[in-house]
Amino acid sequence: MAVYDAGATVDYATGIGLVVQAIIIAPSFTYRTELGPTTLTADSSGNYPDTTLNPYEIASQLGFLFLGTLPDAALTAAAADGSLATTAGLTTQIDRLLALPAVKANLTSIVIDWFNVRQMFDKANKDTSLLTGLSSADSDQNAIVNDLYQATQQFVTDVLWTSGGTVSDLVTSQKTYLNKRLATLYPGATFSGAAPSSNSTFVAATWPSSQMRSGMLTQPSFLWSASDPVKTSIVKRGKLIHDDIVCQDALPPPVDLSTPSAMNVISCKSPDGTMSLSTCDSEILQSDARMMYAPCKTCHAQMDPYARVLQNFGPIGNFRTADEANRPIDSSVTFTAPPLAPQMASGSVAFGQLLSSSGVIKDCAVQKFTSYALGTSINTYNTCEVNDLRAKTDGTVASMFKQVAMANILRKRAGGAK
Fold first, then answer.
1. In terms of domains, do 209 and 154 share one?
2. For residue 416, what pLDDT band results from cuts at 50, 70 and 90?
3. H or E element: which one contains 65?
């Protein structure tokens, strides 16, 4: 009312306007509280003890984690009767939430965001020569990326919920969903029924074995998102997979690329500039130089192999057998850095199988989902709390999110000065 009174000296509308502004910028409106019980008292130094979220705070946490919005009526009721503060009550609510269609849809979106697919919406700028298979009416790139996102939603939904698969199946499945426009742009798939006859209908399909596609990492949406307008960008793909799909610890900060030695290596020369290594006219040749010589080798020997194994797929996720310099593509890679060293993968199918059999994709998923639930990034792979959760999950997304939501780290908070 004090804010209203100050504005009302001008007129009623100004008073109400100030009230709305005050509410919107108030911390208690903008943020969810994580303060614990209101009965906590500070010690003689003014510091409060470590605590646990109260039932209403737990309800908010579960609502935003599983529903992507405010807690529903059942969560609010469980907070009111105190059952959310018990293991049994927490388990009951998590199991109930995981059965809801709205929760499955929200978790599907979280999984898609893990693979950074929505970056595709900022990249509807591909070279038009990559779209020559489409009619002019079907070449609108904004429409194409919307199609690709819908196709990815249906793929992830099918793998995780309809087929009851695991996170490992996300990187090994040969399935896809295509409408008429996408079937034209990405030819070769076989359909479980009739081929799609319109752009409004998506039909389940299987990629041909000759294209060597394997799960999310070869879905056109992922590849489109992680590529430049004209070329694939081994650096972008490699860093994305290193950081977010296999969850390796952060690499050192980028070196100064303006130094003579770095500029020489970028130009596919020896660091001292005395020897030319190649014609430097393709992503692979440029990667060869980066992986061979300092100062680029330290990072790129760890990043680039993850992208080189996907070189059969162009900037829009199109299958190809020759690169941008029209040379045959060799997608065989021997990994020299953890967690896959010293194993070899010949193409994306073998890579997907390796991510699955090694458990790397499952372990990374737990790390990413825990980060999402906490609202802060966990950047160290070997973290004891995350390792404990990894040991408890069966690999399904439902199991992972349940274990994360049940973990004490989600509700424990450190004390501090008021």
1. yes
2. confident
3. none
SS3 call for 362 = helix
Q: Which one, of 122, 128, 143, 161, lies nearest residue 200 by Cα?
A: 143
Going by C-alpha positions, the residue among 246, 222, 233, 383 that lies closest to residue 302 is 246
Integer Cα distance of 239 and 299 in angstroms? 9
**Structural domain of 3:** 1-31
pTM for the complete prediction? 0.92
Label the pairing between strands 203-206 and 190-191. antiparallel
Angle formed by the axes of helices 87-98 and 55-62, nearest 10°: 20
Number of domains present in the structure of the chain: 3
CA-CA-CA-CA dihedral for 239, 244, 245, 251, to nearest 10: 50
Averaged pLDDT, 12-41: 93
Between CA 341 and CA 358 the distance in angstroms is: 11
Max Cα-Cα span within the chain: 78
DSSP conformation class of 218: G
Does the structure show a pLDDT above 90 at 334?
yes
Within-domain flag for 265:
no
